[in-house]
Amino acid sequence: MTEGISGKVVVITGASSGLGEATARRLANDGAKLVLGARRVDRLEALAAELDLGEGAVVQTDVTNATQVQALVDRAVELHGRIDVIVNNAGLMPVSPLERGKIADWDRMIDVNIKGVLYGIAAALPRMKAQKSGHIINVSSVAGHKVRAGNAVYAATKTAVRVISEGLRQEVKPYNIRTTIVSPGAVATELADSVTEPDVAMGVREIYKIAIPSDSFARMVAFAISQPEDVDINEILFRPTAQEV
Fold first, then answer.
1. How many CB atoms lie under 10 A from the CB of residue 198?
2. Alpha-carbon distance 243 to 168, whole Å?
3. pLDDT tens digit string along 100-149?
4. How far, CA to CA in Å, does 230 sit from each of 168, 177, 178, 226?
5. Which residues pair with 34 in a beta bridge?
């Protein structure tokens, strides 16, 4: 699968753990040139050292800050002269019933899950338009396809990612830019740890007992990137085989 990946300059947000970390490991093994962003810079630096990414491959990035996301993309261009792929992966999932009025959690999900993706697009798109090539990968969720009681706001943010991505797909055709939405089900990450309501967190952890390894997500990303340039994989939806919803 290294064909189509080796040598590509890839930016990943939320790369300090979970899906982002697994994707970094997979793509580094496939020969990509990585620039990683996340808030926890100590974990990023340890990962970059382990993967031997070279100097400057880590940028402390809070995706709710457009300036920081722009700096992450600019670092990739500064180091490698271009950006071939951005994986807008950073996300959180503090789900709860609407009646509990967890407004701070709603705001965080909107800021990270929606605005973080938009800021990634805004940072990368001008570079990719100028290159007349590129690939924008946005992370949605099974929840972006089906809403359940207790996860209305989270599902709304992940549905928004799908809607934004489809609009983007149609807009960037003149510039030879590819777009992919990856919608995972229960995958083993720290996502469940972002749930702030103890009883809800207990239920989420019960569901996540069937979670599959985060490398399953990384394989999906690698599959999309590795396709020939005239093949545009627009959406991948996957779950554990045991997951019903």
1. 7
2. 30
3. 999 999 999 999 999 999 999 999 999 999 999 999 999 999 999 999 99
4. 17, 10, 9, 11
5. 10
Against a cut of 0.85, is the pTM above it?
A: yes
Distance CA 29, CA 142 (A): 28
- The set of catalytic residues is 154
Parallel, antiparallel, or unpaired for β 58-60 and 85-88? unpaired
* Residue with the two structure tokens 């809070």: 62
Q: How confident is the model at residue 245 (pLDDT cuts 50, 70, 90)?
A: confident
What would the two tokens of residue 158 be?
């992940």
Residues in CB range of 23: below 8 A, 6 or more apart? 12, 15, 87, 89, 217, 218, 221, 222
Which class would CATH give 9-238? alpha beta
Rounded to 10 deg, the angle between the 116-131 and 152-171 helix axes is 10
Domain ranges in the chain are 9-238
**Residue 114 token pair:** 């929606």
Give per-residue pLDDT as tens, 145-182: 999 999 999 999 999 999 999 999 999 999 999 999 99
Token digits of residue 17: 């753990």
Instruction: Note the maximum CA span of the chain.
Output: 50
d(CA 138, CA 141): 10
pLDDT of residue 193: 82
From the list 89, 69, 86, 73, the residue with the least C-alpha distance to 8 is 86
